[in-house]
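USER:
I wish I could look at a protein chain and see how it folds. I am handing you a single protein, as its sequence and its fold in token form. As I understand it, each token names a local backbone shape. I hope you can help me see how the letters and the tokens relate. The protein I mean follows directly.
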Amino acid sequence: MPTILKKVLLAEDDPDIQKVAKMSLKFAGVTDVLVVENGEECLAVAGREKPDVILLDVMMPKMDGYEACRRLKEDPDTKNIPIIFLTAKAQQFEVKKGMSVGACGYLTKPFNPMTLHAEIVALLNQAQKS
């Protein structure tokens, strides 16, 4: 798994969160932040672009993040892409559900824009050691 992120796919329907996450990732050195607004777009773009990591919201139109994660992990073309949930859903059963459908990490909103990249890299490194 990468510790230097070049391409991140952000699946998030809130324009303000999109803007803050994209700016903080770019500031941290991510060269390409792809933004989609729902789970269906996430599946299509992930298969086509093969990002280093996918940041996935839970509550999105058309297909929620849990279903998108499950489908990404079932697809041979995307199953090895690390997925980290970035969501306001912070209850323990929601975290467990996110991990059970294939995510390697779970970050909750609101997040610290200055440490978002570092937290993602730490989760990826931790998942790699597991």
User: Anything to note?
Assistant: The chain has a mean pLDDT of 93.
